[in-house]
Amino acid sequence: MLSSKICTTVDFEQDFYLPLVTQIGETKRYHRKQWEFVVMAQALRERGCLEPGKRGLGFAVGKEPLPALFARYGCAVTATDQPPDDHAREHWGGTMLAEGIESIRKPAVCDDATFDRLVDFCPADMNAIPPAFYGYYDFLWSSCAFEHIGGIERGLDFVVTSLHCLKPGGWAIHTTEYNLSSNDHTLDTSTLCLYRRRDIDALMQRLHALKHHLVPVSYQRGPHAYDWYVDTPPYKAEPVLHFRCGGFSATSLLLIIRKGTR
């Protein structure tokens, strides 16, 4: 089973990768964003979450294919993104944010009848999760979102608070941007931060104290040339597993968390 881990080339060569890429309507390319969607889906599938009757909650879904993909598997999905009056929309514009149910419809991923039956859209602020979501879902996810909601601590607070939305034993799957360069200095602004190993260690301790479990994280870079190539702006279409940002080298990090059963 997949563990929590940084993006590495070896994942692109696994048997699960190409079938899931096809299911999300893409062709295989060595890019960390595609990797995020595929490994998040695989992590949930391995843990029995992508089955008919399961309920999933997505945060900051933007235009990603995951709500449609999970509906394809028979899951009832609540997809969310920033409320229309959120000032952060001035930063993101209208190209990346979900503006409603039609903006996340993906007929090539999930047929319209199934999508209409299983997917709902609801505006939601990740810093003020609606209590109506609490205790209702079998799994939840966010794809490189919580590093944008106000700084390192706010992002970690979101990860912990979002677990209230899960049933006991439910699964939370997140990706975020990880600092490969330093465990001391990092980028920490209101609109973007890069998490360090020390931040993830602090998150693990918080989760453990609350009887939740973060699946152990592998920070090991692979042996392939792509695992050591760091792209710089303007970024390429591929390969982009690692990138330069704010003076640091960074990559995507997958976090797999199980809510405590008590």
Describe the structure.
The protein contains seven helices and eleven strands. The mean pLDDT is 95. The longest helix is centred in the N-terminal third of the chain and has 15 residues, at 32-46. The chain has a single domain, classed as 3-Layer(aba) Sandwich (Rossmann fold), CATH 3.40.50.150. It is globular. By secondary structure, the protein is an alpha/beta fold. Strands 1, 2, 3, 4, 5, 6, 7, 8, 9, 10 and 11 form an eleven-stranded mixed beta sheet that branches.
What's the helix and strand layout?
Blueprint: E1 4-6, H1 17-23, H2 32-46, E2 55-59, H3 66-72, E3 76-81, H4 89-92, H5 112-118, E4 119-123, E5 137-143, H6 152-162, E6 166-179, H7 197-209, E7 213-214, E8 217-218, E9 230-231, E10 242-245, E11 248-258
Name a few traits of the molecule.
single chain; alpha/beta; Rossmann fold; 11 strands
- The tally of beta strands, per DSSP, is 11
Q: Assign the CATH topology.
A: Rossmann fold
Broad structural category:
alpha/beta
**Tally of discrete structural domains:** 1
Over the alpha carbons, how many angstroms does the gyration radius reach?
Answer: 17 Å
Beta-strand portion reads: 15-25%
Assign the CATH superfamily.
Vaccinia Virus protein VP39
Q: Give the count of helical stretches.
A: 7
